[in-house]
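WARN no homologs supplied; continuing
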Amino acid sequence: MRLALYQPDIPQNMGAIIRIAACFRVPVDVIEPCGFPFDERRLLRTAMDYGEACELVRHQSWSNYITAFRQSSNRLVLMTTASDVSHADFIFQPTDTLMLGRESHGVPSDVHQTADHRIRIPIAKGLRSLNVSVAGAIALAEATRQFGEFTGKTEL
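OK structure emitted
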């Protein structure tokens, strides 16, 4: 299981996602460009001490990322409000990559179409969406629950 961030806009959200990934022991792919300057100093500030506990892989562009990704047999699972499939009904696989879009615009249509699966988290009618880091945490928790890897009784 991995988390992929498509051109994140908000450094604090990226920091929260790195912290979530560290706690669940999953790597994070950051697909650039980011909507903010991204360097080691800023990474340390946004991820706090969790940056050291998380495997982080930077990709200079979507084309670089997807070329490398397609060399694996993993599935790309896009978190999107434009899906009818609930995260609770989706059957995750341990090799899945959960992709989270930009906070401001999600992902462009070509990225949306490239995903192997698209899932959403149901929320109250009339509301637009969850914070991207919250959505990532909810989906990752459901995936690991399905695998039986994290029950609260033992550590990962």
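The helical segments are 11-24, 40-47, 62-69, 109-114, 132-147.
OK
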